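Hi support team,

I submitted a single chain yesterday and got back a structure, but I'm not sure I'm reading the token output correctly. Could someone confirm the output below corresponds to the sequence I sent? I've pasted both exactly as they appear in my results page.

Thanks,
R.
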Amino acid sequence: MKKTLLFLFLSTIIFCQDEIVFIDGKILKGEVDKNSIVENPSSIRFKPKGWQIFSFYNVEQINFVRSWNGKLLYPKGVVVNIESNVYHLPNVKHLPSDDFQKSYSDNKEADSAGYLPCKACFDTHPQISDYALEKELVKATIIQIQNTNEIMYEHSLLPKLQSMMSNILSNWSESLKGYDYRIQIIRDDTPNAFAVAGGNLYFSTGLLEMLENDEELESVLAHEIAHVERRHTLRAFKEYLKKQQVLAFATTLLAIAAVAAESEEGLMLAGAVSEIGKFAIEYSQKGYDRDLEQEADMFAQIYLNNAGKELTYLLSSLDKLATHSKTRLGYIPQTNAFSSHPNILSRIKQIENSEFFNYDSPLSMELHPIKSDLNIQPGFIKMEINHAYKTSSSDSDESDEILLLGKIINEHSDLSFQINSIKLNLLGSLGVIELGGIVDVSASYESSTDFVGRIKAPKEMSEKVLESVKTKRILPFAVDVSAIVLQSGKNSEKVTGFQNIQCTMTIN
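Hi R., thanks for writing in. Yes, this is the structure output for that exact sequence:
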């Protein structure tokens, strides 16, 4: 009996941890000093997981503190909106005006008075599938969005949006990754939409009022779903780590490998966990970059084509966004949580000049190392191409871009690779065409990751290049793959060094 009680006590210590959630979205788990949470504290004592001593944290940086059993420890008071009958945390930015505020000592008192909790304040565990790193990214980003926006959980259009989303998912062009999708509507006159990893889709009231029909709304939904299914948040976080240059070269590589492997442990070892909250702020303000927006546009087109829908509605929705930006902002990008649609006119041009196709069976190729100091076996890295897409170049009127979409598959059980560049040799007189888009792809051990390859070709050559790709007229060719060995073994302990690996490629 004593052993059982001791086990339960130790389990409580190990597995049941308090949480301190900061305003910037950062979350720390550990042990809070309950005695430091008085009526109006200036700081709270907290011992993060793995630390031996308590530290003081300024309450001006804290959103809330929650005990291991879910009880809200700080702030003790809540603010009731007497108009909506909903209560909020006192330090969020979507509080009602003073005329509609009423204070209660805690959420239990507000509950007993018949008020309901604000989901934006108290629902901090989004419904997503079991992708560990994405969960951490989602938590930080969602808290940032929820603290700065009013979410309308009873909006009349929610049932229609949910039904439309289910229909899109049932007809998606690729196998779904298993996310648990949900739609939330933000009270914001600025028309826009925003996707967060894990299936959380946000639509502003301004966008819903601006779109004129269900077809336009469907095209926007497909675009946002593409952001989620192509795991753009993870890819954006990886780019963020590179750009910050806050980590040493070797640890940055290890952190990028941890992103590819969805390893929280690997991120902690690389010292990159502290960057998640900072990334969430930047990400919620700036949205996705041009390449990721173009990729989402492409998958929206693929869906609409497969569903027998016209592309005109996708174009008309973008045109309305462009008109709004021109009228209200002079083409200056917004700096709020819904600024995920930069370069709208460029995107319209690319869609108008686009052509795409899907392979019935993927173009599958294997990389075989022929020059390497590593003791590795050939044939453990594969490249699969599932879609091709031709469009006008976003930065030149004299060239087109051909995008190849697919997966990099690493079948090796011990080694991960960072693929920096690769060159194609297409059949015919086209010569060697550099596929410059397979850049910075982390192929973690025994895993696959999405990639987009970009071929830029003069307009007079682009059709020939596309035809070669369409018909799989690609010869077995020599490939230069710059690869970095990121891990040795499965413990993700250290970076072992840099290697330039010369490869050949064969078609399966």
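A quick pointer for reading it: Residues 141 and 280 are 5 Å apart (CA to CA). Let us know if anything else looks off.

Best,
Support desk
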